[in-house]
């Protein structure tokens, strides 16, 4: 029998890396009331003093209001110091993209279909 923590860990996998100088948090599974605190902690840790944070949700199957709140909180922290937040969500992943559109979070947060699209945009910003 899995403990509650082990079950949450099974439900949500998070990894962090740096690509072209930008932190990238890759998340797979489900972000809900139970897993959102881990998600939020990972975002806070990865954002540090970076000029931008990229959150790859391309393999997320579900996100609820707790996950959206975590994204909004890190967006506010980043924005307060002039940094950007990018969310990766391909058009064929309605579990994330549709929720971002319906809640209008996509009007605040830059949603891109691929990691390469976000990196390309960040390269252009960095060169300007």
Explain what this protein looks like in three dimensions.
This protein has 128 residues and is α/β, with parallel strands linked by helices. The mean pLDDT is 90. It has one domain (4-115): Transcription Regulator spoIIAA, CATH 3.30.750. A five-stranded mixed sheet has the order 1-2-3-4-5, sandwiched between helices. It starts with a helix and ends with a helix. The longest helix has 16 residues, at 65-80. α2 (36-47) packs parallel to α3. It has five helices and five strands, in the order αββαβαβαβα.
Beta-strand content bin: 25-35%
**Average predicted confidence as pLDDT:** 90
Q: Give me the number of helical elements.
A: 5
Strand numbers in spatial order across the main sheet:
1-2-3-4-5
Question: How many domains, in number, for the residues?
Answer: 1
CATH hierarchy class name: Alpha Beta
Binned, the helix content reads 40-55%
């Amino acid at each position: 029998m899995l403990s509650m923590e082990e079950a949450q860990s099974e439900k949500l996998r998070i990894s962090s890396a740096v690509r072209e100088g930008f932190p990238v948090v890759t998340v797979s599974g489900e972000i809900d009331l139970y897993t959102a605190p881990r998600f939020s902690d990972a975002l806070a840790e990865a954002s540090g003093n970076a000029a931008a944070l990229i959150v790859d949700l391309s393999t997320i199957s579900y996100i609820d209001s707790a996950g959206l709140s975590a994204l909004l909180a890190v967006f506010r922290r980043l924005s307060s110091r002039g940094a950007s937040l990018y969310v990766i969500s391909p058009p064929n992943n309605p579990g994330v993209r549709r929720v971002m559109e319906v809640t209008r979070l996509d009007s605040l947060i830059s949603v891109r279909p691929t990691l390469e699209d976000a990196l390309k945009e960040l390269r252009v910003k960095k060169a300007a």
